[in-house]
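haha ok so turns out i had the wrong file open the whole time. this is the CORRECT one, sorry everyone. sequence first:
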Amino acid sequence: MAGHLTIFLTRTRGPFWSIRPARILWVAVLGTQIVATLLAVYGVFMTPLGWGWAAFVWGYALVWFLVNDRVKLLAYRVFDPTAAPLLVKKQADAKPAPADMTQQIAKRAYELYEQGGRQGGHAVEDWEQAEREVRKK
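then structure:
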């Protein structure tokens, strides 16, 4: 149960519900979970667990799924080098902090990547050009 839920956590940088999963993913996950639950409840190849334990395992996995989604969002916020720092106080007329410039450079470099037809192999050149443009402003 928890292993399949990890797929829903890791497929997006935002909350798990921010991008709807493909129908084939839903069918695969629900199908395997239903079969596994029935095997465990009725004891195929194992001692039967019963519906009470099955419900407990489902509930436990779902609660930790929600907790892990919050932890994932916090981790992206703390460790993402392109995001603005959490503990830096911004001043109205102050020069942009390096992290602010990094975010602008990353955005511009991605724009250059898209303008170049999304062809790989030019990341360094795109970044350097973006950095020159942003610093020039």
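The CA atoms of residues 56 and 100 lie 46 Å apart.
again sry for the mixup
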